[in-house]
Structure formats: C-alpha cells, structure tokens
Amino acid sequence: MFEFELIKEDTRTGARLGRFHTPHGSFDTPVFMPVGTQATVKAVTPRDLKDIGARIILSNTYHLYMRPGHKLVEEAGGLHRFMNWDRPILTDSGGFQVFSLSDLRHITDEGVTFKSHLDGSTHFLGPEEAIEIENSLGADIIMAFDECVPYPADYDYAARSVDRTTNWLERCVKAHKREDQALFGIVQGSMYPDLRLKSARDVTSFDLPGYGIGGLSVGEPKAVMYEMLDVLMPVMPKHKPRYLMGVGSPDCLIEGVMRGIDMFDCVLPTRIARNGTVLTSRGKVVVRNATYERDFSPLDPECDCYTCKNFTRAYIRHLIKANEILAATLATIHNLRFLINLMENIRTAIMEDRLPEFRTEFYAKFGYE
C-alpha cells in the first residue's frame, strides 16, 4: 500500500529522485507540499492546486482538532472527502503548534496540557490522543507526536527531549490503528550533532514507512541547519523518504535536496503572497510597492501559471491597494506554482546529472550570493 521507489541518486551530491505510493495516488520526490492548515490552502481552491501541479498537501492536526473537531471530519467521510481533495494528504501531529503555545502549556512525560488559542479552554494532547485524532482525519501520511524544542535549547533539556520523543514514538506506534495510513517518526536533537545522531538511531530503529526531521528552521542560522542535515543524512535509511519539516525558501529547498531530503512543506509562499510579496526567477518582488503602479508586465515572464499568463503587476498591485480578495488568490497561485516548478526543475536536473550547475544558475538569477 505504501512504497518508496528510489529511482536515482546524484553521484556528486546526496540528491535523490523517488516516488512514494499511497492509497490516494503517487507523488514524485523531491516534492514541496503546500500547507492547508485548516483543511484549505488559504486563498486557493483544490482545482487551483491541481492546475499548478500540487500532488500532495499538508493539513494541521491541532487546528482541525480545535475546529471543527476530528470526529466531525470523520463523520463527513474523512479529510479527503471533507475538503474535496482526492490526492495524498499529510497531517502533522499538532506537536509544533502545541509547543509554540509557550505561555499556555505544561509538558510532562505523559503529554502536554494546553489552553486553546481560540477560547482558552483546557485540553490534553499526548501520543495516543494525537494518533486517535489523525486516525479520524484519515490522511495518507501521519506524523508521530514529538517534542519540538525552541532555539536555542539547553543541552540537558534537548537530551531529555530526545528520549521523550522516542518514548512518545513507541506509544504512537502502539496506538496507530489504520493500515491505510503511513506513520512517520520524527528525528529531533536541537543543534547538537550527538543528540541528532542518537535521535536518528532511536527513531529509525522503528521500521516505519518514512521519517521526518523536525526542530530545524526554528530560528537558527541556515548554516547550522545544513550542518545538522550533513550529520544526519549518512545514518538515515536509504530506501525511506526523508521529510524536512517547515522548510520552504528556494535556497533551503535546493540545499536540502542536495543533502538527500525528499519532502518539504512551509507556509512561506502563501503567507508572503497575502502580504503582497511574490517569488520570481529574478528574486522576490514586493508587488504592493509604488514602483509597480504602471508595470504592465507579468509577475514573472518565465512563469507558466494562470496569474502570469493573464495579469500584470500593475493590476495585482491595484487589487492589493483596493483590499480585493483576488489579490491574495492570484499571488498565492503564482508563489505555489513557482516552488512546485522549482521542484520540477530540480528533479530534471537530478535526472540529467547537472544539479550543482542548476544550483549555480538559479542562485545567480535569483540574487543569492
């Protein structure tokens, strides 16, 4: 039911081409997954997502538990039917959101007691509860409940957190009831190489369909994140997908792929789109700025998305200034297509054994040093 095909490995880097099969279809890797936090990718429809080439999307366990409730989603026929998306879905465990409520939660080895960000009501979430919620939601890939420590983190606390995450994973495995859902474990360890290696050994000792790498892109310098990936990749199972959680800037996607990462997600492209910033082949463009008032060119002449084929920077700036909802839709379609197209180009470069050259060319055009 779940299978990861390792199609090709780049001989000069750690990059891989793969294909992951799920009950709702397959997707090629490396892949970027748009984030649909509350069973919707903000500002776009499922049809839009298919048009831009999205093969898998992510939804959030914490938010769907809080509203409308996992049992309601289950009653509706599961998340796929509820949101009318017939391709693969991944749900995170809700752990990151719970732990981000630093002033509203209390952690023990049993789990986390927290107050709702919506109404202040008190709730408890542990491994068994997280898996029960995810089983009800019915996504194809579900993430284990883990502890994501902040950056910077004290070594002793990070070490205890690694053990707690491993113990929670064992409980998640026991609680998981559905064979049509692939449970991924998550490697933690903050920015300490020895803890990262320990966590990787512990988590991969469970023979799971895939593994996430959490606790990165939480405020540390990018060089430190890359260092942690360099430490981890040699010990991660070769024939299982590797998912770098919460990462989505173009440079981090490329650098992650070159270190052997297969899956990525991030709210970056949708969030900045709603704030009037778009990604283009020549770098970021803040299209809401006055300099684009009479710019009748597309957001990116090299982009094949619906927005770039039909609308100009001047028009989208007008929509932004007029507070029209269409502005968010058009900018979001473009930003998501930009990253999905980037991943398509990366896959082609891996197949043609020219990923390092692609990286150099992309960085020069985009404006990265």
Structure commentary:
It is a single chain. The protein is α/β, with parallel strands linked by helices and 369 residues long. 41% of the residues lie in helices and 18% in strands. The chain has 15 helices and 16 strands. The chain has helices at 46-51, 61-66, 70-75, 79-83, 95-100, 127-137, 155-175, 193-204, 222-232, 250-258, 268-274, 306-310, 313-321, 325-351, 355-366; strands at 3-9, 16-22, 25-29, 31-33, 57-60, 89-92, 105-107, 112-115, 122-125, 141-143, 182-187, 210-213, 242-244, 263-265, 277-280, 283-286. The strands form four sheets. The chain has an eight-stranded parallel β-sheet with strand order 4-14-13-12-11-10-6-5. It has a three-stranded antiparallel β-sheet with strand order 1-2-3. The longest helix is centred in the C-terminal third of the chain and has 27 residues, at 325-351. The termini are far apart.
Q: Which short descriptors sum up this protein?
A:
alpha/beta; 8-stranded parallel sheet; 369 residues; 16 strands; 3-stranded antiparallel sheet; single chain
Produce the secondary structure layout.
Blueprint: E1 3-9, E2 16-22, E3 25-29, E4 31-33, H1 46-51, E5 57-60, H2 61-66, H3 70-75, H4 79-83, E6 89-92, H5 95-100, E7 105-107, E8 112-115, E9 122-125, H6 127-137, E10 141-143, H7 155-175, E11 182-187, H8 193-204, E12 210-213, H9 222-232, E13 242-244, H10 250-258, E14 263-265, H11 268-274, E15 277-280, E16 283-286, H12 306-310, H13 313-321, H14 325-351, H15 355-366
Parallel strand pairs: 4-14, 5-6, 6-10, 10-11, 11-12, 12-13, 13-14
Antiparallel strand pairs: 1-2, 2-3, 7-8, 8-9, 15-16
Helix pairs in contact: 6-7, 7-8, 8-9, 10-14, 11-14, 13-14
